[in-house]
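Students often ask why inverse folding is considered easier than folding. One informal answer: many sequences map to the same fold, so there is more than one right answer. In these notes we will look at a single instance of the problem. The structure comes first.
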């Protein structure tokens, strides 16, 4: 389990500049040891300098205590260590200071300069100390030992902490970079999950809208014609039994057609639901999978609906059903008849179907003109009715209006990149026009 930047920030519980309490305890212990060391080394320093011993001890304790601030001011610690090198004290402080300096975010040229100064200071002090020991006779070696001992001592006290600090600093920076990348990746994944949920919700909303529009187109037209024929059947049942029989047969045919189309739609919905259910069980925790499953379900439903939906070749039958219901309807086709993509033909058919349904509802008995034009890059359709002879005829046959017919037609046409216009005519009728690009 990874920690975000906020979690790490909440985990910083140390005092002052320390990130954690254990860091403060470690620096306190190192400062105490360094103060004891420098205090002990201050005794011979005081004797050699001719000052009181307590002054040398106090100086050493104060100088060694500077190690306490090594994390906050590493340069100051190294400078103090270099400054007290001639007094032959502060070896622990010099080693820890160089390590801290190399591991911090300090420019490399500063690290190199201070390391060079520490190396040079240690080399000079070691050279002088070894020469004094040889002069007193404590060491009986050749002259070659003096430079060898000074170089070895200075490199041994400078190089290891410097290299270790550089390694630890590089590793720390690498870990911080990896944490930042992990935090960034986690934020991106959260954003992708949120977008996937939004897309899934949008796909479900679009599918619900499409199903509602299709159900409206399938049911409204058939049922409207059935209501019209039922009203006509009621009117002529006693006067003209033969016509009543024909109207009853028409009602039965339309009811069967409506049931057939409803069964086809319900079959598509059940198939899509089964596929979507299996996908949801397989990946219940993947938000992206939910969106993909919803989109695939919608595409599959559209594809199945396009295969079994109506086409322009059935337009004459549609107009004939309206004419059989008592509407005076005129169909005219312009241009060369050709085959379009399934979604284009279905949309054109539904526009004419819904427009005729609206005429049955709101202008029963009005003469209607249906025009279909096949053009090079598009197909155009127009359904226009003249003013009805008797107002409120829709209420006479009991046809309710949901107010979604024109909205559904517009959505269908605009979804294919077409143009849809509807509105009353100057003479009191109503006109519905649509132009759909001949895609596919």
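Output (designed amino acids):
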């Amino acid at each position: 389990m990874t920690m975000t930047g906020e979690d790490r920030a909440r985990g910083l519980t140390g005092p002052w500049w320390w990130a954690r309490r254990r860091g403060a305890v470690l620096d306190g212990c190192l400062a105490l040891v360094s103060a004891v060391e420098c205090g002990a080394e201050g005794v011979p320093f005081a004797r050699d300098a001719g000052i009181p011993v307590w002054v040398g001890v106090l100086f050493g304790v104060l100088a060694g205590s500077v190690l306490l601030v090594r994390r906050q001011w590493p340069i100051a610690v190294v400078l103090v260590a270099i400054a007290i090198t001639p007094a032959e004290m502060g070896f622990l402080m010099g080693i820890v200071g160089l390590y801290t300096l190399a591991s911090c975010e300090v420019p490399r040229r500063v690290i190199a300069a201070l390391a060079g100064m520490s190396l040079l200071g240690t080399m000079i002090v070691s050279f002088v100390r070894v020469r004094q020991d040889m002069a007193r006779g404590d060491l009986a070696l050749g002259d070659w030992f003096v430079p060898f001992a000074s170089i070895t001592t200075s490199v041994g006290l400078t190089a290891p902490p410097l290299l270790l600090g550089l390694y630890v600093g590089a590793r720390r920076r690498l870990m911080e970079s990896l944490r930042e990348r992990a935090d960034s990746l986690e934020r991106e994944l959260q954003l992708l999950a949120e977008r996937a949920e939004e897309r899934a919700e949008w796909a479900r909303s679009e599918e619900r809208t499409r199903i509602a529009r299709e159900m409206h187109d399938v049911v409204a037209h058939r049922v409207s014609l059935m209501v019209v024929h039922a009203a006509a059947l009621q009117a002529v049942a006693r006067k003209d039994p033969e016509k009543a029989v024909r109207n009853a047969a028409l009602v039965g045919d339309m009811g069967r057609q409506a049931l057939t189309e409803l069964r086809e739609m319900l079959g598509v919905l059940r198939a899509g639901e089964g596929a979507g259910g299996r996908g949801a069980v397989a990946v219940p925790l993947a938000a992206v999978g939910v969106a993909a499953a919803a989109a695939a379900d919608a595409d599959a439903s559209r594809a199945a609906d396009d295969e079994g939906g109506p086409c322009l070749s059935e337009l004459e039958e549609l107009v004939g059903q309206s004419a059989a219901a008592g509407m005076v309807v005129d169909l005219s086709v312009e241009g060369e008849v050709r085959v379009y993509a399934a979604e284009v033909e279905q949309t054109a058919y539904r526009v004419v179907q819904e427009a005729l349904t609206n005429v049955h509802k709101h202008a029963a008995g009005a003469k209607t003109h249906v025009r279909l034009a096949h053009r090079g890059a598009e197909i155009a359709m127009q359904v226009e009715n003249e003013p009805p002879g008797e107002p409120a005829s829709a209420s006479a046959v009991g046809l309710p209006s949901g107010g979604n017919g024109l909205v559904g037609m517009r959505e269908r046409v605009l979804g294919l990149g077409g143009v849809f216009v509807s509105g009353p005519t100057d003479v009191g009728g109503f006109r519905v026009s649509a132009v759909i690009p001949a895609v596919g």
